[in-house]
Write a structure and sequence with these properties.
Elements (H helix, E strand, L loop, with lengths): L1 H8 L2 H15 L3 E5 L1 H9 L4 E5 L20 E4 L3 H12 L3 E4 L6 H15 L1 E5 L13 H9 L2 E9 L2 E3 L7 E3 L4 E6 L11 H15 L12
Parallel strand pairs: 1-9, 2-5, 2-6, 3-4, 3-5
Antiparallel strand pairs: 6-9, 7-8
Helix pairs in contact: 2-4, 5-6
Length: about 220
């Protein structure tokens, strides 16, 4: 029975159905974008932009991020069953899913992400996915930004009414008809690191910048 469901979850028909369900659900949100213009102007001026967020917060961004579909931005997604489902929805939203993660196929996926970001000038990255630990930024985003000579733009989602799942990431799902805010942080450009200590310092700096944007019980992380 489990294998049957897994086969269904991987079909194009299921991905299309889920895409429409997500979009119809998201249409109930009253979305406000904060500080979007700054990085969009840089993108339109030829700058490479790497948008990043926490795993708990990506759902509310699915519909508004369809506004960037003309760039065909890349997004790294794990090779798990859940990842395949998310990739199907992302592809129909105008994004280019790149399958791989730090635990499986990461090196090849990172190469594809670098190539995609250089070509389209826009990409997205979930900094603590796909399995956490929550609030811990992995090294991939720093490597990607350096290799593609890209500016990092953190973003955060919040809602005035939301459910929080009892999962490792305390996943945030805005309730229907809630007010949802997507806030883009300040643009960050890291110089090429001089040694591993410098690289780790950059990773921790980004972590320090993004940690205050965590929601739910993760907002209490130090």
């Amino acid at each position: 029975m489990r294998s049957l469901f897994e086969k269904i979850f991987k079909t194009d028909s299921f991905h299309l159905l889920l895409f429409w369900i997500v979009n119809l659900y998201s249409l109930t949100f009253r979305i406000r974008l904060v500080n979007e213009r700054a990085w969009l102007q840089r993108l339109q001026g030829g700058e490479r932009i790497l948008l990043c967020t926490w795993h708990q917060q990506f759902f509310a961004a699915i519909r508004p991020f369809q506004n960037y579909r003309d760039y065909t931005p890349s997004l790294m997604i794990s090779k798990s069953t859940d990842g395949t489902i998310i990739a199907g929805v992302a592809k129909r939203s105008g994004w280019n899913p790149v399958l791989g993660s730090s635990s499986k196929g990461g090196a090849e996926a990172l190469k594809d992400m670098i190539a995609g970001l250089k070509k389209s000038r826009l990409a997205g990255h979930v900094v603590d996915g796909p399995r956490g630990p929550a609030g811990r930024i992995k090294a991939g985003i720093i490597r990607l930004a350096h290799a593609a000579d890209a500016v990092i733009v953190p973003f955060y989602t919040s809602a005035d009414r939301a459910w929080y799942f009892n999962s490792w990431d305390n996943f945030l799902l805005p309730k229907p008809f809630s007010k949802v805010t997507l806030t883009y942080g300040e643009m960050i450009r890291f110089d090429r690191p001089v040694g591993q200590d410098d690289f780790e310092s950059q990773r921790r700096r980004l972590e320090d910048v993004m940690t205050p944007g965590l929601q739910g019980r993760l907002a209490r992380l130090p």
